[in-house]
Design a protein that fits this description.
The complex is a heterodimer. Chain A is an alpha+beta fold. Chain A has 3 domains: 7-53, Uridine Diphospho-n-acetylenolpyruvylglucosamine Reductase, domain 2, CATH 3.30.43; 63-168, Uridine Diphospho-n-acetylenolpyruvylglucosamine Reductase, domain 3 (2-Layer Sandwich); 175-270, CO dehydrogenase flavoprotein, C-terminal domain (Enolase-like, domain 1). Chain A is built from 10 helices and 14 strands. At the A-B interface, α10 of A face α4, α8 and α20 of B.
């Protein structure tokens, strides 16, 4: 469990980082918080020739709200995201990430670029229909949440690109629920729910290669008040809409049931009601 | 204040632990910390294949890697002649070889095939990647209760390395007479010890002497076995176990990697070789445990008397018979102690140790009994349901009581405890069973998360003497340890103990025992241990034995030297020895408050002023004593807990957990409670989280701590720990306490979930997904 050889470049700014990636000829990797990358290196599952350390790049840790959208730098640590009040859904989701040591180092941009389908922040990005700003050799581009996640641990960010910032629209109401085996584990199933006006968006982590945006048909059309019946219908629609695989932590049916349950809880959270507990059949 | 108050015994109080200053301030010295001149680092090449013939190993490219100085394979002349061969005199036991590095074929994914020596570990891993091994795969077997397609060892075509039937009375006849008969089929989950410090070793061979620093629990066994394997005089081998970060049995094994490291060091004289295992290697190739299946039948009389138990057990021994304990370690313990704290006349139990293409099974805290307590308590719960009896009343009906001891168990082990009912009574009272039963009923009527109550009563066989071996008949009997007590010329005391410590405070415990036996202050006693060149003998840390056995030796040695001191003091002061007492480092005459002479002055005479030595006295004040308890000390325990279930997610919430144990006379209350709490936490880990899973191809699916879930402080509830005390018949009255806590959680968690949902829980671990499935039924 020792990293294979690599060279190290400490980037001074975004252009320098992109240039270093380009010079690495598709063999470079951005080092931000390192919470996913370093274990992967230690297991020798990846062997980049250059690590481009962006931790000292100035200006990437800003957090501000403009026109109802949280504008966050890519280097915002999970701990900072958890502690801000500008985007309460992102704050709540960040509190579910790992442990303090992990949250102290892990970054928003890193989590989105890593694209773990069980991670919290990718689900939040989809629920809020956010976007990332990506810098590359040809300049900067904007990638929407629906296009960012391509597959498990695969994002639309190119080998020579880096995420520099994140746009996260602030919902009018929100809810978040997660089931993990232990405190701090990756979710078995996590659900982020966000209401913008009269539309509710539900994103489910842990049930597919990418965070899954629930297609609930017309059910996503809601008023200011959401009835218990509507919540139950939406949760059932979410469970119908996912197609999870079986793994060590449970069969597909279990993940489907958790999807329904976590959606119920997230929507109850969104509707401002106490979380329901389903009684045995 | 009387002199006796000033010098209250150190035992029974939570004195400050001697080891904590260094351990808590980051100044512990572990094998991993060791740096020696010219030292090089080793990385092992491990098989990615569960079962296959090795058709070629090409090391040429690895030797070209920067910083790599040597590569060893199983065929290397330094390695090839040696094999680890765990021996047992049990009839029918199939002896098999375990090569230090695989030879001819590999038998599990993770088996070491080659070793690379390099300037540092990074370069050694670079070299390991460059070793090319070709395999011709064979069909793997990962399950111990299916027919193998291709045997793991040619010597055992059915993979069974050992089988034994325990028999008492006539179980078939008694079952035929029983009022109710219950059947259960259970499996328990493979998991392992996972100490915070993985395995580690540094081997140095110079001037025909081998020094092996090893994070081992058993340095003297390691020395003896290495002498035999390496063909060295035992006196030329020194094994040093410095501070060790946890063991739990995993480090009571001499591993092929250890032997390979020493053989390589002998091939590279003057170059110390270091190997520090990482967590991936540990999960893959350190010993696993508890991968068992039980098919059980029990018969009860109408009044609840347990009449008969008939059992079949399969224990997955993994790819090799673990050295030196053999593949019998788990099955023999399972068959010997299955019946636990219950009286039983008619018993038949066939146990098997079965080879598979998985990492070898070895000793792990509780050895087999977390599984057998689960099995026995499942029979009790099923029996209670079939009889319509209260499950706790049924247990009470059958417990071995004080009037029954010494009680000869059906496996012929002799139980000296009889404190089971006292533990159960106190646990039930502390837990407030009536209150929890009322809450359970309230929830059933009014609604609410289902609540279940689980119980486990158990006996921990501790401090095994020469006549109490529950294990395989090996070439050595582990009944005794030695201790040397030396008074220094300044009157302070140095103890050379055979103990090893992996964090459980033996340094403190031994100092307390010697201080009291000798009559000096705790602060005046220093303890040396973990070095075969300094202390005479100790079998090490396993079977909850050291407080009993090494503690007994420490007490006897302390008493012996106290006799020397008093005799010399009596002669010097011309006082009758029978009227002298040594306490607080001062010699007192009976009835006099003022001491007549200090220990320091007696010591000065003994070492430095031979002109003052009375006629017939040799210089020096030192004595060594062995102790063997001959039998063992059974330690009773009972745990009871209330759990609630979220039926929507299957999540289990632990509402209350009570444990009451009989540790006999307690030397250090905080250490004892720490042992109990830690072992319950490990037990909960095994019951609810930890599971080493192999796929059908023999790949370990849970290869990192991302998938192999260990409980953290967040998962372990507040534990309420109580004690009863029936001192054992040994010099200090202690009963071992290292393992008991692990024995009940499987039974408690499975029993509580079954109680909450009205189902039977047959398979472990009890995960949320499994609970959810039970709810769906």
């Amino acid at each position: 469990m020792k990293c294979p050889p690599f060279s190290y470049h400490r980037a001074t700014d975004v252009a320098d980082a992109v240039a270093a990636l380009q010079a690495a000829d598709d063999e470079g990797k951005i080092l931000a918080g390192g919470q996913s990358l370093v274990p992967v290196l230690a297991l020798r599952l990846a062997r980049p020739s250059v690590l481009v350390d962006v931790n000292r790049v100035p200006g990437l840790d800003s957090l501000e709200r403009r026109d109802g959208v949280l504008q966050a730098g890519a280097l915002v640590r999970h701990l900072a995201l958890a502690g801000q009040a500008l985007h309460p859904l992102a704050a709540e989701a960040a509190r579910w990430i790992g442990h303090t040591a992990i949250r102290s180092r892990g970054t928003l941009g890193g989590s989105l670029a890593h694209a773990d389908p069980s991670a919290e922040l990718p689900a939040v990005l989809r629920a809020c229909d956010g976007a990332v700003h990506v810098a590359g050799p040809a300049g900067s581009r904007r990638v929407g949440a629906d296009d960012l996640f391509v597959g498990a641990l695969q994002s639309a960010v190119g080998e020579n690109e880096m995420i520099t910032g994140v746009e996260l629209p602030v919902p009018d109401a929100w809810g978040f629920a997660e089931f993990a085996r232990r405190h701090g584990d990756f979710a078995v199933v996590a659900v982020a729910a966000a209401r913008f006006g009269d539309r509710v968006r539900v994103a489910v982590g842990g049930v597919a290669g990418v965070p899954h945006l629930v297609d609930a048909g017309d059910l996503d059309h809601v008023g200011d008040e959401i009835s218990d019946d509507h919540v139950a219908l939406l949760a059932a629609a979410a469970a119908d809409d996912v197609d999870p695989a079986s793994d060590l932590h449970g069969c597909a049916g279990y993940r489907r049931a958790l999807t329904e349950q976590m959606t119920l809880r997230a929507l109850a959270d969104l509707a401002g009601r106490p979380q329901p507990v389903r009684e045995p059949a | 204040m009387t002199p006796d108050d000033q010098h209250a015994p150190a035992s029974g109080t939570s004195v400050r632990r001697k080891e904590d200053v260094r351990l808590l301030t980051g100044r512990g010295r572990f094998v991993s910390d060791l740096a020696l001149p010219r030292m090089r680092h080793v990385a092992f090449v491990r098989s990615p294949v569960a079962h296959g013939r090795i058709t070629g190993v090409d090391v040429a490219e690895a030797l070209e890697v920067d910083g790599v100085s040597a590569v060893f394979t199983g065929e290397h002349p330094a390695i090839a002649p040696v094999a680890l061969r765990a021996q047992s005199a049990l009839p029918g036991y199939v002896e098999t070889d375990q090569p230090p590095l695989a030879r001819g074929k590999v038998r599990f994914a993770g088996e070491a095939v080659a070793a690379v020596v390099a300037a540092d570990r990074y370069l050694a891993e670079d070299g390991a990647e460059a070793v090319v091994v070709d395999y011709d795969p064979l069909p793997p077997t990962v399950c111990a209760w299916v027919e193998p397609e291709h045997p793991v060892h040619d010597e055992a075509p059915d993979n069974v390395l050992l089988s034994r039937t325990f028999r008492a009375g006539d179980a078939d006849a008694a079952l035929a007479e029983a009022h109710v008969v219950v059947d259960r089929e259970l499996t328990t989950n493979r998991h392992g010890g996972n100490p915070i410090e993985c395995r580690a070793g540094v081997a140095r061979y110079e001037d025909r002497r081998l020094t092996f620093w090893s994070g081992t629990q058993v340095p003297y066994i390691v020395r003896t076995q290495l002498a035999e394997l390496l063909d060295l005089p035992e006196g030329n081998i020194r094994v040093i176990a410095p501070d060790v970060g946890g063991g739990f049995g995993v480090k009571a094994v001499l591993y092929p990697e250890d032997v390979a490291l020493c053989l390589m060091a002998m091939a590279m004289p003057g170059v110390p070789l270091k190997w520090v295992e990482d967590r991936v290697e540990h999960l893959l190739a350190a010993t696993h445990a508890r991968d068992h299946r039980y098919v059980l039948r029990a018969g009860f009389a109408a009044d609840g008397e347990l009449l008969a138990v008939s059992a079949d057990a399969w224990c997955n021994a993994g790819a090799y018979s673990v050295y030196p304990w053999t593949a019998g370690i788990e099955p023999l313990m399972a068959g010997g102690l299955l019946t636990g704290p219950y009286k039983l006349a008619h018993y038949t139990c066939t146990v098997r140790g079965v080879a598979t293409n998985t990492s070898p099974s070895g000793p792990y805290r509780g050895v087999a009994r977390p599984s057998t307590v689960f099995a026995m308590e499942a029979l009790m719960d099923s029996g209670a349901r079939a009889l319509g009896m209260d499950p706790i009343a049924l247990r009470r009906r059958n417990l071995i009581l004080p009037a029954d001891v010494p009680y000869r168990m059906p496996s012929r082990l002799v139980d000296d405890s009889g404190a089971y009912e006292a533990c159960l009574d106190k646990a039930v009272a502390t837990f407030d069973l009536d209150r929890w039963r009322a809450e359970q009923t309230r929830r059933r009527v009014e609604g609410g998360r289902p609540l279940g109550i689980g119980v486990g009563v158990y006996n921990e066989l501790t401090g095994l003497g020469r006549a109490a071996s529950a294990g395989p008949r090996m070439a050595f009997r582990t009944g005794h340890d030695a201790c040397t007590v030396r008074i220094n010329p300044d009157g302070a005391v140095t103890v050379f103990s055979g103990v090893t410590s992996q964090g459980q405070g033996l340094e403190t415990t031994m100092a307390q025992v010697v201080a009291d036996a000798l009559g000096v202050d705790y602060d005046d006693v220093e303890v040396r241990y973990g070095d075969t060149d300094s202390s005479l003998w100790g079998f090490g840390a396993f079977s909850s034995r050291q407080a009993v056995i090494s503690g007994g030796a420490a007490h006897l040695a302390g008493e012996h030297v106290r006799g020397q001191v008093l005799a010399l003091a009596a002669a010097l002061k011309e006082a009758p020895v029978e009227e002298l007492d040594l306490r607080g480092g001062q010699i007192h005459m009976a009835g006099q408050e003022k001491p007549i002479i200090s220990l320091a002055e007696v010591a000065r005479v003994a070492y430095l002023q031979s002109d003052r030595l009375p006629e017939g006295f040799e210089p020096g004040l030192e004595g060594t004593r062995f102790y063997d308890p001959i039998r063992g000390a059974f330690a009773a325990g009972a745990q009871i807990a209330a759990l609630e279930i979220d039926p929507a997610t299957g999540e289990i919430g632990i509402l209350d957990w009570v444990c009451v144990e009989d540790a006999g006379r307690i030397v250090h209350p905080v250490i004892v409670d720490g042992q109990i709490a830690g072992s319950i936490a490990q037990g909960i880990g095994g019951a609810m989280y930890e599971h080493l899973v192999y796929d059908d191809a023999g790949n370990l699916s849970t290869g990192t701590l991302l998938d192999y879930l260990m409980p953290t402080a967040g998962e372990i509830p507040e534990l309420r720990i109580g004690h009863v005390s029936t001192p054992a018949a040994n010099p200090t009255g202690v009963r071992g306490v290292g393992e008991g806590g692990t024995l009940a959680p499987n039974a408690v968690v499975a029993g509580a979930v079954a109680d909450a949902l009205g189902v039977e829980v047959d398979d472990l671990p009890v995960t949320p997904a499994r609970v959810w499935e039970l709810v769906q039924r």
